[in-house]
Amino acid sequence: MKKQSIDHAQLLVLSLLAGEDMYGYQIIVELARRSDHTFEMKEGTLYPVLHGLERAGAVEAYQQEAPTGRMRKYYHITRKGTELLKTEEESWRSYSGAVNAVLRSSIGGLTLA
Amino acid sequence: MKKQSIDHAQLLVLSLLAGEDMYGYQIIVELARRSDHTFEMKEGTLYPVLHGLERAGAVEAYQQEAPTGRMRKYYHITRKGTELLKTEEESWRSYSGAVNAVLRSSIGGLTLA
DNA sequence: TAGTTTACCTAGACATTCTAGGTATGTCAA
DNA sequence: TTGACATACCTAGAATGTCTAGGTAAACTA
């Protein structure tokens, strides 16, 4: 049966990583920026998602020193992750399309008055 | 802080009821039909949602006999429910717009090749 | 040097949806 | 007429996804 809900955190993270390698903190900041602060993903949400994606082979992690001297843990999307992203994007399109279809179908009862 | 996810069952149910009064089973069937079977809401999801909406004063229930002689429990959306629907629709638009914005922003890394 | 930001992490709580069951009536085919 | 299927309502408990609320530590900044 079709999935009824979207694992939206996973979709968004994969989508960002498809653009460029990022580290956790950066993902949170970028997500807020690109969504005009609609998404303010919590660390308690993000890190488990990243670790899950890593376990699933969708991303790979590597350490890299920041200009500041601190170590950062960057994530790189794999081919497997790109496939996963494609199917999740498709799920999202189908899901959001269906919601919009239902909303449109009820407009008659709303404010045609 | 803004809600990070949509209570999609509630939004969809309210949206249907904004069009016309419906009974539970009908909501499930209509939802499947109007979403081209993307949504196949389970009874275990629907009934708790309906009861919650009733407790919240967003819908009112009444019994009515079907042509078959069976009793059906119809739900009617209240003014309060219509307000709720408006805010949830707005949440949905903002949420789906944000997802699309993030997806678009990463296209560069995807398949421009 | 104290506070804020950066940067990583986890356990447990909470919310939403599903699974899997229950009850009962109506319809239709074998 | 009986057995299967659709209709129609319901709930308890499991599973899933996200958040709260903590911990650790380095770097910047006032």
- Give the biggest sheet of chain A: 3 strands, antiparallel
CATH topology of chain A: Arc Repressor Mutant, subunit A
Low-confidence stretches of chain A: 1-5
- Biggest sheet strand order of chain A reads 1-3-2
Can you offer a commentary on this structure?
The structure is a homodimer of 113-residue chains. Chain A is of the alpha+beta class and 113 residues long. The first copy, chain A, has a single domain (8-106), classed as Arc Repressor Mutant, subunit A, CATH 1.10.10. Chain A is built from 4 helices and 3 strands; from the N terminus they run αβααββα. Chain A has a 3-stranded antiparallel beta sheet with strand order 1-3-2. In chain A, a hairpin with a 5-residue loop joins strand 2 (59-65) and strand 3 (71-77). In chain A, helix 1 (8-19) packs across helix 4 (79-105). The model of chain A is unreliable at 1-5 (pLDDT under 50). The A-B interface holds A 1-2, 4-5, 8, 11-12, 15-16, 18-20, 31, 34-41, 82, 85, 89, 92, 94-103, 105-106, 108-110 and B 1-2, 4-5, 8, 11-12, 15-16, 18-20, 31, 34-41, 82, 85, 89, 92, 94-103, 105-106, 108-110.
What is the gist of this entry?
Two copies of one chain form a homodimer. With 113 residues, the first copy, chain A, is of the alpha+beta class. Helices cover 56% and strands 14% of the residues of chain A.
Provide the fold topology:
Two copies of one chain form a homodimer.
Chain A: H1 8-19, E1 22-23, H2 24-34, H3 43-55, E2 59-65, E3 71-77, H4 79-105
The structure holds a DNA duplex (30 and 30 nucleotides).
Task: Please name the defining characteristics of this protein.
3-stranded antiparallel sheet; disordered N terminus; homodimer; DNA-binding; globular; 113 residues; 4 helices; alpha+beta; Arc Repressor Mutant, subunit A
